[in-house]
Amino acid sequence: MRTMASAPTENVWDYPRPPALVPCTRRVRIELGGVLVADSTRALRVLETSHPPSIYIPPADVDPACITPSRARSTFCEWKGSATYYDVHGGDRREEAAAWAYPRPTAGFAGLRDHLAFYPGRMDRCLLDEEVVRSQEGDFYGGWITDEIVGPFKGGPGTWGW
Q1: What average pLDDT does the segment 128-144 reach?
Q2: Spatial separation of the C-alpha atoms in residues 155 and 157, rounded to whole Å
C-alpha cells in the first residue's frame, strides 16, 4: 500500500483546465458482487482542476459479461463530448448507470474512445495497485481518491459553483 511518505503528493488544484489525459501507472482493479469486473495495466487518467482523477479502462480489460447498456440518459462534457452509460453487474449485484464511456470523444480526448470509467462509490472495491480507492463525494463526478491525492475536491455539498 502506498502512503503519503512513499508517494509524491498531487494537489487537484494543480491539475490543468482544460483537463489532461495521461497514462495510469498503477494496476487498476474493480470488484462488484464478488466478481472481478475489470483488471488493467493500460488505463488512462483524466486530470482536471478541482477533481480527483477519473480512471478510464480499455474495453478489452473489462469483463463484457459485467456491463450492459443503461437506459440512463447521456450527458455532455464540454471537453470530452457525449457520454453513454452502462449498468454494471457482478454476482447478485447490479448498479444502474455506474459506468460511462465516450464512443465519439472530441479530438483532444480521442484516446478515451470506448474506455470505461466507473463510479468507485458504487462498486464493492476499486484498487490502484493494492490501495483501496475512496470515492469523490456527490453523484455526478467519478473521481478516485488515493493517499497521494489532496484537495479540497469539487463534488460535495456546496461545491457545485466552484
Answers
A1: 90
A2: 7
Write down the pTM of the prediction.
0.91
Q: Which of 117, 57, 40, 41 is nearest to 86 (CA)?
A: 117
Q: How far apart are CA 126 and CA 120, in angstroms?
A: 6
Q: Which pLDDT tens digit goes with each residue over 94-135?
A: 999 999 999 999 999 999 999 999 999 999 999 999 999 999
Q: In this structure, how many other beta carbons lie within 10 angstroms of the beta carbon of residue 151?
A: 18
Of residues 78, 81, 153, the one with CA closest to residue 115: 81
Smallest CA-to-CA distance from 100 within 90, 91, 108, 112 is with: 112
Cell numbers linked to 82 = 457525449
